[in-house]
Specification:
The chain is of the alpha/beta class. It is built from 9 helices and 14 strands. The chain has a 4-stranded parallel β-sheet, with helices on both faces. Bound molecules: guanosine-5'-diphosphate-rhamnose.
Length: 342
């Protein structure tokens, strides 16, 4: 979106022994050509000196801090790393802006999250709803939220929080529930997978389309004054319903049988079991229900979501079928394809 708006964009990527840029490869520009507008620097949210150096080199007008260990369940396994990257990482960027004297130049966007609401205090959730984090991820993000507010108030920085509810797209990481489902639907229909194993089917999420949501992030940095905003659709759905909608895209009607860990989703026509519950995916503390109220964003930013959930599900299944067709071709010709479907 920023490239389309004519921005020069600098991103930070972590070093890995393999290429890890799949999701931005379509934006790649050969660095030897003229008028390159997209750059990637090696960096890490746990390394202050690195962040200071990159920000010193680039002197950005806007920083979007979307970097995080962002998987809620993984944060229970790696709580300290999550706190380091997500909480202290946010502080490191804010401090870098201050150390470099960029307080009046650089505007800062913090990717805050509906996970802050955690245990339900009020629905729908809005900017004034109290927070109650339910995971090491959410607790780390709580620090990120408040340190952003504090730097705005203490140093007059243009720093704001977008409290974004779940936002999905065909580029979503494969282990988040929506993409796990749409990818499984594609792989099941093309014969690369037999079943889909999921955790809590009753969880309700307010799912929107990431492409609509990035427009809101940008708008938040174009105002006269920095403020915090909830970005959501105002509608929610259970994981179970999402599964049903995704299978419908390939002409399968799912019928649910049993309850709790014995619940199963069957293909109504063939009777074949396609979905099973695996308690390994249950979280020690769960966020049962998220439903956002985006009224403030509508009034002050003129922002509204454009894409409905059925459109989003259809898009994700369609794209996963394309990728899976490529995998099927590879497999047929003796090349290895990715097996992980966790
Ligand atoms: P979430 O997204 O935790 O809301 O955080 P996720 O898609 O991981 O889970 C949504 C809900 O689905 C339930 N669930 C499962 N989740 C996963 N990942 N895998 C499963 O097999 C499964 N089965 C059921 C979960 O328990 C949960 O209730 C996302 C992340 O992108 C955060 O970084 C971001 O801050 C918030 O959205 C907004």
């Amino acid at each position: 979106m920023l490239l389309e708006k004519g921005y020069v964009v600098h991103g930070i990527k972590r070093r890995s022994s393999q290429f890890n840029t799949d999701r931005v490869d379509h934006l790649y520009q050969d660095q030897h050509e003229e008028n390159v507008r997209f750059f990637l620097h090696h960096g890490d949210m746990t390394d202050s000196t690195n962040l200071i150096r990159v920000i010193q080199q680039v002197k950005p007008d806007e920083i979007y801090n979307l970097a995080a260990q962002s998987h809620v369940q993984v944060s229970f396994d790696t709580p300290e790393y999550t706190a380091n990257a997500d909480a202290l990482g946010t502080l490191r960027i804010l401090e870098a802006i201050r150390i470099l004297g960029l307080e009046k130049k650089t505007r800062f966007y913090q990717a805050s999250t509906s996970e802050l609401y955690g245990l339900v205090q009020e629905t729908p959730q809005k900017e004034t709803t109290p927070f109650y984090p339910r995971s090491p991820y959410a607790a780390a993000k709580l620090y990120g939220y408040w340190i952003t507010v504090n730097y705005r108030e203490a140093y007059g920085m243009y720093a704001c929080n977008g409290i974004l509810f779940n936002h999905e797209s065909p580029l979503r990481g494969e282990t988040f529930v929506t993409r796990k489902i749409t990818r499984a639907v594609a792989r099941i229909t093309l014969g690369l997978q037999h079943k889909l194993h999921l955790g809590n089917l009753d969880a309700k999420r307010d799912w929107g389309f990431a492409k609509d949501y990035v427009e809101a992030m940008w708008l938040m940095l174009q105002q006269d004054q920095a403020e915090d905003f909830v970005i959501a659709t105002g509608r929610n759905t259970t994981v179970r319903d999402f599964v049903g909608q995704a299978f419908k895209e390939i002409g399968i009607n799912i019928e649910w049988h049993g309850s709790g860990i014995d619940e199963k989703g069957l293909d109504r026509t063939s009777g074949r079991v396609l979905v099973e519950v695996d308690p390994r995916y249950f979280r020690p503390t769960e966020v049962d229900l998220l439903l956002g109220d985006p009224t403030k964003a509508k009034i002050k930013l003129g922002w509204e979501p454009k894409t409905t959930l059925p459109e989003l599900v259809a898009m994700m299944v369609r794209e996963d079928i394309k990728t899976t067709e490529r995998d099927v071709l590879c497999k047929k010709n003796g090349y290895a394809v990715r097996q992980f479907n966790e």
